[in-house]
Amino acid sequence: MPQTVKAAVALDEGRPVEVRDIIVPDPGPGEVTVRVRASGVCHTDLHYRDGVIGNTYPYLLGHEASGVVEQIGEGVHNVAPGDFVILNWRAVCGRCRACRRGRPTACVDDFTATQRMTLADGRPLTAALGIGAFTELTLVHSGQCTPVSPEVDPAAAGLLGCGVMSGLGAALNTGGVTVGDTVAVIGVGGVGSAAVAGAKLAGATRIIAVDIDDRKLKHATDFGATHVIDARLADDVVTAIRDLTDGLGADVVIDAAGSPETWRQGFYARALGGTFVLVARPDSDMRLEMPLLDAFLRNGTYKTSWYGDCLPSRDFPALVDLHLQGRLPLDRFVTERIPLAGVDDAFDTMRRGDVLRSVVVFD
């Protein structure tokens, strides 16, 4: 029967998040309910609250989560009750043109639960990124659940559901960093620091972190950066990166800041024939103008990275195992653990740059 649980809800644009009772229905065909163990506080949730993304209020926020499958609906075969899972907002259908051509990371299908969770008064909720995880129990499509080892800390595991996977994947999947590469990461908040960690995991020998915040540069060093550039002090970021790469530029440059200025820095800081990856989402009003001849003469590859070009069923279990082996410090991304009522305060903390991630934890 439907269950009533506590959840953090954005009722209207710009209003503080409120903890409300919501009703979670029993899972229907292809659906599962997940008892949430932990959920990270991501910029995307703040964008939902403030109307930057969509306007179909009320929103059930949260999407960067892990938990335990409680019930499954008819036709669900990939998970079973009791499985510990990471929730992924991007699922793979296996049927679309991209999947049929062996390119599942470009899947264009969309898996979300058919039923809607509701407020106690019956108003339907829009689940953030089709998940809605700032709640004790959530309803999702079974394809949004990826089983991983239950030995992992739920707070650390859940971060693979969005931001940390985006950064790791920008280096490992999109950027294709390999042993001996030089890598520069511009903007080393949570996503950028994850890109640094990914570059280290891949065997890069020189990893350059660029930011304007000393705290973030320190975090990047902890995750494996061999050099740091304070963009406030450098006369020219491109020159500074080239000075650290024998005048050649970096083999892979990852822009995790997402502004026209950092785009230009990343483009021109590449080695000839190198790879430039944009992983940060630019604002809709940003524009870029540059000489087309430069794009021709500098050769190489320009890519955007969406969700780290991940394949959850492949990447999540492998990355959790690497963490359990002590080779990937997922736990270092968890700056603080907070109760459900602390989501709005966590947004303020995030805006100030005081954390890599605040994580809502449920007992």
TrEMBL record:
SMART domains reported in the protein's UniProt record: PKS_ER
Required cofactor(s): Zn(2+)
A single GO molecular function term of this UniProt record: mycothiol-dependent formaldehyde dehydrogenase activity
PROSITE patterns xrefs: ADH_ZINC
Keyword Signal included in the entry's annotation: no
Keywords noted in UniProt: Metal-binding, Oxidoreductase, Zinc
UniProt xrefs under InterPro entries: ADH-like_C, ADH-like_N, ADH_Zn_CS, ER, GroES-like_sf, MycoS_dep_FDH, NAD(P)-bd_dom_sf
Broad class of enzyme this protein falls into: oxidoreductase
EC number(s) from the headed UniProt entry: 1.1.1.306
Ranges of residues in domain Enoyl reductase (ER): 14-360
A Pfam family annotated for this UniProt entry: ADH_zinc_N
Family, similarity comment: Belongs to the zinc-containing alcohol dehydrogenase family.
Stored PANTHER family: NAD-DEPENDENT ALCOHOL DEHYDROGENASE (PTHR43350), S-NITROSOMYCOTHIOL REDUCTASE MSCR (PTHR43350:SF21)
The protein's name: S-(Hydroxymethyl)mycothiol dehydrogenase
Organism: Saccharothrix hoggarensis
Lineage start: Bacteria, Bacillati, Actinomycetota, Actinomycetes, Pseudonocardiales
